[in-house]
Write a structure and sequence with these properties.
- This protein has helices at 2-21, 119-123, 187-197, 222-236, 254-264, 284-298, 303-322, 326-341, 348-365, 368-374, 378-382, 402-412, 452-464; strands at 25-33, 36-47, 50-57, 62-72, 76-81, 86-93, 96-103, 106-114, 136-144, 150-158, 164-170, 201-205, 242-252, 273-277, 389-394, 420-425.
- It is 36% helix and 28% strand.
- The strands form 2 sheets. The protein has an 8-stranded antiparallel β-barrel. It has an 8-stranded mixed beta sheet with strand order 9-10-12-11-13-14-15-16, with helices on both faces.
- It is of the alpha/beta class.
- It has 13 helices and 16 strands.
């Protein structure tokens, strides 16, 4: 019997490392949540005798999310992400790990299948991302904003002395780096590459507190970001290779709102033109109400749920707009939620669950930026514009509705139609990608980063101003 035990122990000792090595590499899975499949990739390796790993969620543009703990004994796998916010436990059986994924109180069965070593590379295809060698100059530079923060960025300049037409690029809402990276895409890098290849100087920069730039992003408002953009434009036009008679800016989404602000103040900085891509035109509460409806419909929510979301958000935006200050708005959230949810046709238990979820979510959203943003009326700004403007909208945009905003822009430019070039691209989404539905969930899975027809129209508008 002792010999048999010795043989079994020897076999386990010899086999165990081999089994353990089977975890190394990439594993793929589809997480099913509320009828939707979210593809995930998990990557494991051994470093200094300890297992480490990370997770990708390509459809959400989240790559390389580190695991805070990985345990694997050859058969059982357990890991945590975010200190336990996400956890997983599973059993390795024939190159499949059968287990349970846990997050925010939900437990969901999730099986991991061994994936090709190039799974991460194949998960995100970005064929438009610029590749060296480049036939233009790349110049790292920085400027100082009104608070004394250094904001760092990159200028791409055509070969030669110039002077050349020039633009700054201004990003949309949320902390953005100079490439405006989102969902695995780098649209401003793609745009800069295209425009500079066609003879236009482009300056893109990291927002305050993002990337290499100094400052505090969380306390800044759209007005603050507009001042940063003005400082960026002044910096760009200080170079001899920039044609100051043909220098402007391009803004996307909230950057489009900043385009209106800068255009209204064009005389004070010698700004010659602006391009607003999916820029808000109508008062922000109206914009957000339509956004709530379009986004909710795009994910397939039933009519009743869409109406509930529109109702609560509309009341919330109205409350913020009418409040005297941010603190007063925060103090009214709980009462507002109780009042609105009280009208829902559902059980008392479900109502309380809704209240428990909505109150902290809305309170968290009330920061200086949001308070300022909701109370902004782009129409009053746009009426002051007296320089050439190119405005573009995507027909499938669920964040800035093309009909709502494009039609109002036409009305605001009555009597000065010669200044406005308006384009609506029927099949493009908010990021100006060719889309099926326009839903936010499509952004990461679409390979196209920025539609080339729009890039051509942008370049033509700038170059034709010469």
């Amino acid at each position: 019997m002792k010999k048999i035990h010795l043989v079994l122990l020897l076999l386990l000792f010899l086999v165990q490392p081999t089994i353990g090595q089977e975890l190394t590499g990439s594993w793929k899975a589809d997480l099913e949540v509320m009828g939707q499949k979210i593809p995930l990739l998990f990557h494991f390796e051994k470093e200094d005798g300890q297992w480490i790993g990370n997770m990708d969620s390509p459809s959400q543009g989240a790559m390389g999310i580190p695991m805070s703990k990985v345990l694997f004994d050859g058969l059982m796998l357990a890991f945590e992400i975010g200190g336990g916010v996400i956890s997983y436990e599973g059993l390795l059986i024939d190159l499949k790990i059968k287990g349970t994924f846990k997050q925010s109180g939900l437990s969901i069965p999730l099986d991991l299948l061994k994936a090709d070593d190039k799974a991460r590379e194949n998960a995100v295809q970005r064929p438009q991302e610029p590749q060296a060698p480049f036939e233009y100059e790349i110049i790292d530079t920085h400027f100082v904003n009104s608070l004394g923060n250094r904001l760092y960025g990159t200028i791409t300049k055509p070969q030669g002395a110039g002077p050349f037409p020039a633009v700054i690029l201004v990003t949309g809402s949320g902390p953005q780096n100079r490439n405006s990276e989102i969902f695995g895409h780098a649209p401003f890098w793609v745009m800069a590459d295209y425009l500079t290849s066609h003879g236009i100087v482009v300056f893109r920069y990291d927002e305050r507190g993002v990337g290499e730039s100094e400052g505090n992003f969380s306390q800044a408002t759209t007005s603050d970001f507009s001042k940063d953009a003005e400082a960026a434009f002044t910096h760009l036009t200080s170079f001899d290779y920039v044609d100051k008679s043909n220098a402007g800016m391009i803004g996307h989404s909230e950057g489009g709102l900043i385009a209106w602000m800068m255009a209204a103040n064009a005389e004070n900085m010698d700004l010659k033109f602006v391009l607003a891509l999916a820029g808000p035109v109508v008062p922000i509460p109206d914009l957000m109400k339509k956004q709530t409806e379009d986004v909710s419909r795009s994910v397939g929510n039933p009519r009743e749920l869409v109406e509930q979301q529109v109702k609560i958000n509309s009341r919330f935006y109205q409350m913020v707009e009418e409040s005297k200050n941010l603190e007063e708005a925060k103090a009214q959230v709980k009462e507002l939620v109780n009042e609105v949810v009280g009208t829902y046709d559902m059980s008392a238990e479900l109502k309380q669950e809704q209240i428990n979820n909505l109150v902290p979510a809305l309170e968290r959203s009330l920061n200086p930026w949001f308070y300022h943003f909701i109370r902004t009326n782009p129409e009053a700004i746009i009426e002051q514009i007296q320089i050439p403007l190119f405005a573009a909208f995507g027909g499938k945009d669920v964040q800035v509705n093309a009909a709502q905003n494009g039609n109002r822009l036409l009305q605001l430019f009555q009597g000065k139609e010669d200044l406005l070039t308006l384009k609506v691209y029927p099949n493009l989404n908010h990021l100006f990608q060719s889309a099926q539905t326009g839903a936010v969930s499509e952004y990461a899975v679409i390979e196209e980063t920025f539609n080339e027809e729009v890039l051509q129209d942008i370049a033509a508008f700038i170059l034709d101003l010469n």
